[in-house]
Design goal:
Blueprint lengths: L9 H5 L1 H11 L2 E4 L3 E4 L2 H9 L3 E2 L1 H11 L17 H10 L4 H5 L2 H15 L4 E3 H6 L1 H11 L6 H13 L3 H4 L4 H26 L5 H10 L6 H17 L1 H14 L1 H9 L4 H11 L9 E2 L3 E2 L5 E2 L5 E3 L1 H4 L34 H18 L4 E2 L19 E3 L1
The protein binds protoporphyrin IX containing FE.
Length: 396
């Protein structure tokens, strides 16, 4: 292959889609000199996510070996386990995230969104990320889990550092990112341990108390798994939906015709959110390791034991799957995007993220008709995994 794929290059962070197109056309099953494989075709990404031979636990073990740490210290949550443990852990949390339960949260989400807008409206300007997109999912997940929202300033930094740590494999064990991520896990674990002790003594009607009850019932959940589940939900609640709202609003503001259409027809919000997830999704890639040699449709074989990164963000712009994939079309109905993943690890929080995204975006554009981006080039965070803006100053 003639060109070098550098996931840390500033041009790639600013616009990964051009590189994805090149990889997909020139080297769709790419072996990176950084020691992992990169999949960019929709068909291959979908195949790897559906194929039970592509697993998480061997991937975690391979990453841990590479990083020189013990596998047990990372990767105990459902996100990093395979069946049957994955099935057991997901089952314990899943009742809180069914579409029915989540629909019931709509009025509360609306209240949170309105409250935030009431607060910023008089100023006529805000950082849309910090003052609007971020607090919405944080408030919701804290309330669901039973974590005091007022403590959120304490663990905000930990959550960010943990999310950045997803890139540790690229940066190495001695990197600042890897170190901070380790410290963050420790800080968050200690915080959660304290809170668990409180809820154990005095249970409430929250998800944390329900998970503690499952742990106390015996063989369903170990204490480590309880902690890992809480941390996963807290971080997922912090670092993903914020970027659906942020990336989504930036895309709409850059496509005034689409923004106008949504303002005129708010009922388009459901398809609009799906299109925004496809167009510039918050989770760009995941990782698996095959337990056998696997040959892809184009004929290239990935040997067993290797680290494979299916690029969701690339699959969702594949012209073989989406007509005119680089065009933002909020009325797109043929949209089998995989922004929430696929297969057994399909995002548990998808119904919640959809409700939050739909209410946040529709309320924002309804209440602030003169919304405009206040800077020339909003910047994306340096991350290969999560795609989101560092800030989005707007006026209205
Ligand atoms: C727009 C926002 C979101 C996006 C784009 C997103 C995306 C994803 C993706 C792609 C996966 C699969 C990862 C993989 O296969 O390795 C995933 C898994 C997961 N997500 Fe989300 N997510 C979002 C919001 C949320 C929220 C709000 C929560 C809960 C508070 C959540 C909880 C989870 C959990 C628990 C898993 C692991 C599921 C499993 O392993 O079975 N997500 N998410």
């Amino acid at each position: 292959m003639s060109f070098h794929f550098n996931p840390m290059a500033p041009e790639f962070v600013a616009d990964p889609y051009r590189t994805y197109h090149r990889l997909r056309t020139e080297d769709p099953v790419h072996h990176s000199p950084l020691g992992f494989w990169v999949l960019t075709r929709y068909e291959d990404v979908v195949a790897s996510l559906r194929d039970p031979r592509f697993q998480k636990e061997p991937m975690i073990a391979a990453v841990a070996a590479r990083m020189g740490v013990q596998a047990g210290t990372i990767g105990l949550s459902m996100l990093d386990r395979d069946p049957p443990d994955h099935t057991r852990l997901r089952g314990l949390a899943s009742k809180a995230f069914t579409p029915k339960v989540v629909e019931g949260l709509r009025p509360r989400v609306q209240e949170i969104v309105d409250g935030l807008l009431d607060r910023v409206e008089p100023a006529g300007r805000m950082d849309l990320i910090e003052e609007f997109a971020y607090p919405i999912p944080v408030n919701v997940i804290c309330e669901m889990l039973g974590v005091p929202v007022e403590d959120h300033e304490r663990f905000k930094g930990w959550s960010l550092d943990l999310a950045r740590g997803l890139d540790s494999i690229m940066l190495g064990p001695e990197s600042e990112v890897a170190k901070r991520s380790g410290q963050a896990r420790q800080g968050l674990t200690e915080y959660m341990r304290e809170l668990i002790a409180q809820r154990r003594a005095a249970p409430r009607a929250d998800l944390l108390s329900a998970l503690i009850a499952a742990e106390e019932a015996g063989d369903k959940l170990t204490e480590h798994e309880l902690l890992a589940t809480c941390i996963l939900l807290l971080v997922a609640g912090h670092e993903t939906t914020v970027n659906l709202i942020g990336n989504g609003m930036l895309a709409l503001l850059r496509h005034p015709d689409q923004l106008r259409l949504l303002r005129e027809q708010p009922t388009l919000i459901a398809t609009a959110v799906e299109e925004l997830l496809r167009y510039d999704g918050p989770v760009q890639r995941t990782a698996r390791t095959p337990t056998d040699d696997v040959t892809f449709a184009g004929g290239r074989t990935i040997p067993k034991g290797e680290i494979v990164m299916p690029f969701i963000g690339a699959a969702d712009r594949d012209p073989a799957q989406f007509r005119d994939p680089d065009r933002l079309d909020i009325t797109r109905t043929e949209n089998r995007h995989i922004a929430f993943g696929l297969g057994v690890h399909f995002c548990l929080g998808a119904p919640l993220a959809r409700v939050e995204g739909q209410i946040a975006i529709n309320t924002l554009i309804k209440r602030l008709p003169h919304l405009a981006v206040a800077i020339d080039r909003p910047e994306y965070r340096q991350s290969l995994t999560l795609r989101g803006l560092t800030a989005l100053p707007v006026t209205f």
